[in-house]
Amino acid sequence: AVSRGRILAVGPALELRRRYAGKILDHGEGALLPGLVNAHVHLEFSALRGKIPPQPDFPSWLTRTLAAAGALTPEAVAAAAREAVAEARRTGTVLLAEVSNTGTSWSWLRNSSMEFHYFYECLGFNMVHGGPLEEDFPFLTTGGVPGAPNFSLAAHAPYSVSPELFRRLSAWNRRRGRGQSVHLAESPEETRFLATGNGFFRELLQSRGRWHEAFVPPGCSPVSYMEHLGFLGPETLAVHGLQLTGADKTLLARRGTTVVLCPRSNLHTGAGFPDLPGLLAAGIPMALGTDSLASNRDLSLWQEMVVLHDHYPDVPISRLLDLATLGGAEALGRAGDFGTLTPGKRAALLFVPLQEGGDFWEELLRAGAAGKLSWAREQENRHG
User: Fold this and answer.
1) Can you say whether the dihedral through the CA atoms of 42, 228, 136, 138 is positive or negative?
2) Is 12 a domain residue?
3) Which of 39, 91, 49 is CA-nearest to residue 292?
4) pLDDT, tens digit, 9 for 90 and up, residues 158-214
5) Is 170 within a domain?
6) Does 379 score more than 70 pLDDT?
7) How far apart are CA 239 and CA 79, in angstroms?
8) Cα–Cα dist 161/174, whole Å
9) What are the angstrom distances between the C-alpha of 298 and each of 87, 112, 186?
C-alpha cells in the first residue's frame, strides 16, 4: 500500500484491502521489488561505449581509455551521458553514485529524474601542500554544490592521490558528515607501486608530469595504506577490492568499509574478478556497481548479478539482489528511502513478470537481465 510516493504497508493482498481503500493495481503474476542501486558509475565515459575492447591487463585498458577520452567532444560526452542515465532507469536503477572528475555531469543529473549521489573525484599525486581544497579544485566554488547533501569528494586511487591530499579530502568529507569513495586494490600494478614505488603507475605519473620525487612507497597493501592515512571507515566506499589479502579483508570488515563490486568491468579491464565468497565470509559490507561504459557494454545491474551467479552458483541469488538494493542504499546513506519494501520508504517499485511453478530466483534473475521489467507506478494521493 502506497500513498504520496511512500510505502504505507506491506502484506498479503486480502489484508491490505481490508485496511486501505483506493485504487488497486493488479500487475499479474510476478515479483515486486525495490528499485536497484548502482553504487559506482562514471557517466562521463559513456561516449566510449564499444570503443575500448576487452584488454589482457589493467595498464593496457587504462592507456587506451585515457587516449580515447581525450578525443571526445563535450557534445558527445553530454549526449552519451544523458542516454546512459535513461538506460539505467530502463533497467531498474532508481539511485546511482556518479563519480566525476570534471563536474560536468552535475547539471545533467540534477535535471534528470534519477536519484543520485555525486562523488567529485580528485587527483593530484604531486599535491603535497595543505590549504583550502577550493584553491586546487575550483568546482567546489560552484553555487550550491558544496552544501548539497548528495555531494561528496572522492579520492581517485592510491597511485594518483598524494598522502596529503587523501587527508585533506577525508577531512572535508568528515567535517560535513559525507561519504567518500576510492578505487582500491584494483590491479596487481597498484600493489606493486605501493610496495616498491616502481612500475606502470610511476611511469604513467612521470609521463603526465604528476610524479613527486619525494614519495616514499609505504611498502604495504593498498588497504593497509588507506588505514595508515585514516581513510577507511563506514563512510568509505572501496571500489573493486580485487587484490585483497586475508588481513585486508579482516581490516575492511572491522572498519565497516563497503566494497563496491564491478565484476563485468573487472573482466573487461583484465584486472581480475572479485572473491565474493571470501568477502562474504569476512563479513564485509558490499554493494554493486557497473563502472563506466568504457569497460562495460551497458549499465544493467541485472547483468552484474548474472556474471556473479555464473561464477559463484552457490551464493544465493537473493544475496546478490541484496548487493544491488539494500547494500547500495546503505553505502550511499539512503537506506531510509531505498533498498527494501519497508513502510516509510520511497515507493520506487519494480515489477518483474514471472510464471508460476518455476525456480523463482533463477527466473527472476534471467527475466531482469533480459529487461522484462517495468516500474510499478503508484497513484498520487491514492492507496493501492
Assistant:
1) positive
2) no
3) 49
4) 999 999 999 999 999 999 999 999 999 999 999 999 999 999 999 999 999 999 999
5) yes
6) no
7) 26
8) 18
9) 8, 19, 21
Number of structural domains found in the chain: 1
Euclidean distance between the first and final Cα of the chain, in Å? Answer: 5
- Where residue 377 falls among pLDDT bands split at 50, 70, 90? low
Return the SS3 of 40: strand
Task: Report the candidate in 150, 158, 185, 155 with the shortest Cα–Cα distance to residue 170.
Answer: 155
If phi > 0 it is left, if psi is from -120 to 50 it is alpha, else beta; for residue 85 that is alpha
The Cα–Cα gap between 379 and 127 comes to 52
Q: Which residue's entry shows cell 562474504?
A: 280
Question: What value does the mean pLDDT of the chain take?
Answer: 95
* Average pLDDT over every residue of 346-373: 95
pLDDT at 383 over 60: no
Share of the chain above pLDDT 90, in %: 94
pLDDT > 90? residue 309: yes
Q: How confident is the model at residue 226 (pLDDT cuts 50, 70, 90)?
A: very high
Residue with cell 553555487: 143
Cβ proximity of 60 and 4 under 8 Å = no
The count of residues in the chain is: 384
Q: Which amino acid is at 176?
A: R
Buried b (16+ CB within 10 A) or exposed e, 207-243: eeebbeeebeebebbbbbbbbebebbbebbbbbbbbb
DSSP annotation of 296: -
87: enclosing H helix or E strand: helix 74-90
Residue 278 inside a domain? The answer is yes
Q: What residues make up the domain containing 296?
A: 32-351
Answer whether 8's CB lies under 8 Å from 68's CB: no
Q: What is the CA radius of gyration of the chain?
A: 21
Q: What is the CATH number for 54?
A: 3.20.20.140
What gap in Å lies between CA 60 and CA 319, rounded to an integer? 33
87 lies in some domain: yes
